[in-house]
Amino acid sequence: MEIIVKKDILSKNKVEARDNRAFAREKGWYLVNVMGSPGAGKTSLIEMLIKELEDRFKTGVIEGDIASAIDAERMEKAGIPVIQINTGGACHLDAASVRAGMEKLPLSEPGIVFIENVGNLVCPASFDLGEDLRLLVSSVPEGYDKPYKYISMFAVADVIALHKEDLIEADGFETAVFEKGLRMINPEAPLYYTSAKTGKGISELTRWLAIRIDSRI
Ligand code: MG
Ligand code: ZN
Question: Deepest of 33, 55, 94, 148, by most Cβ within 10 A of its Cβ?
Fold first, then answer.
């Protein structure tokens, strides 16, 4: 009997991710894979970034969820081109499902496409979607120990938003401990303190993103 091990699934994904990259280049899309726990505030952060970026860039969103279209409906109401992917139980997006979303995304112009991954701090770290950038949203209520516990997720991030930063004091969130854990495994990635409630850090993060997008890095 043949047993298919995880390695094969991941190498198949790698090929499909490479195809996604080529497809995105053809379309002129810059792909941002947004990862984080359920309830970290991924959707609200994406909305705020789009608001700041839309003067300069066309934007679209691929929403990944196990079930429902709640986040996509929210984006649609805000007039953002969006497509919802339901993974039907899978706890992460893979390159093939993102490709299906890319083909149906109602965005004909070049621009930025945010891919909101399934809320999960574990396996999305292992699946290349063909993205240009990985944005990790880690929120204050989750606790300051997360970089110590979810090492791969923090290690693969290109940029980190410590979201809901307005709750730092109320939650007794130890920023020094968080930053120390993060820097042990990821010394380079910029860290932004952000809040959808106060708007803090959003324009700084947007500015950093815009530079990356302009230079396609
Ligand atoms: Mg969401
Ligand atoms: Zn998973």
Answer: 33
Burial of 148 (0-12, 13-18, 19+ CB in 10 A): middle
Residue 120 inside a domain? The answer is yes
Domain that holds residue 110: 11-214
What separation in Å is there between the alpha carbon of 91 and the centre of ligand 2? 4
14-39 pLDDT, tens digit per residue, is 999 999 999 999 999 999 999 999 99
Q: Is residue 160 part of a domain?
A: yes
Query: Strand, helix or coil at 123?
Result: helix
- Segment 203-214, tens digit of pLDDT: 999 999 999 999
How many Å lie between the centroid of ligand 2 and the Cα of residue 160?
Answer: 20
Rounded to an integer, what distance in angstroms lies between the CA atom of residue 118 and that of residue 15?
A: 21
